[in-house]
Write a structure and sequence with these properties.
By secondary structure, the protein is mainly beta. The protein has 1 helix and 12 strands. Strands 1, 2, 3, 4, 5, 6, 7, 8, 9, 10, 11 and 12 form a 12-stranded mixed β-sheet that branches. It starts with a helix and ends in an 8-residue tail after the last strand.
Length: about 200
């Protein structure tokens, strides 16, 4: 490759790296709405911090509603909040079922911040079998699979379409990815609200 082309290629890589490095980190917020002023939500976070989050004009609001373990079937796309067990399985703390139009959302296995050492697996259910300690579920994602035990008392929820009227004082919410803007404010294009007084368990 001629030096001029090599230089151009290296420059392109450098610019791409710089651009990706400048992407602001997403902020996960769990808490209770205390006040609403237009698009601005005042939130008391789960650790007691006062936060202000501006919602975008096209903010998507989803309800987090209780559902039954029996709704988890082979082919379901689910998110499992869990704790790792010594034998390599994941013991579920909470399970959320994605609607079909959100299949593939954030697919994979990763650390999570609900508790210390907790994990999140977004994946498709390959098999579900009744076990002695609860439901034994095998989930598969593009890079692998996990065995999950869902104890009987584990909260199971699903996402349902909501609207801005649910963003009101007292609502328990989780925002998976608020974006920190250049001026330090937080902005969210999706807010998930617990239905019927529940706290989103994930």
């Amino acid at each position: 490759m001629p030096k001029s082309q090599l230089f151009a290629a290296l420059l392109l890589v450098a610019f791409a790296s710089a651009a990706s490095a400048q992407q602001p980190p997403a902020v996960r917020i769990r808490g209770t709405i205390e006040a609403v002023d237009g698009a601005m939500l005042s939130i008391k976070s789960r650790d007691g911090a006062d936060m202000k989050v501006r919602t975008t004009d096209n903010v998507a609001v989803f309800g987090v509603a209780k559902t039954d373990l029996s709704e988890i079937k082979p082919g379901s796309y689910i998110g499992v909040t869990a704790m790792p067990e010594p034998d390599g399985t994941q013991k579920a703390i909470a399970v959320h079922i994605f609607p079909e139009n959100q299949r593939g959302a954030a697919e994979g296995f990763r650390p999570w911040d609900l508790r210390a050492n907790s994990t999140m697996t977004n994946a498709t259910v390959a098999e579900t079998v009744k076990g002695t300690d609860g439901q034994n579920i095998t989930v598969k994602y593009k890079d692998g699979e996990r065995k999950v035990v869902v104890p009987p008392a584990t909260p199971v929820v699903t996402f349902v379409a909501g609207d801005k009227s649910e963003l009101k004082p007292g609502a328990k919410i989780i925002i998976f990815g608020a974006v920190k803007k250049d001026d330090g404010t937080l902005e969210a294009n999706r807010v998930n609200v617990g239905r019927d007084g529940i706290t989103p368990p994930m």
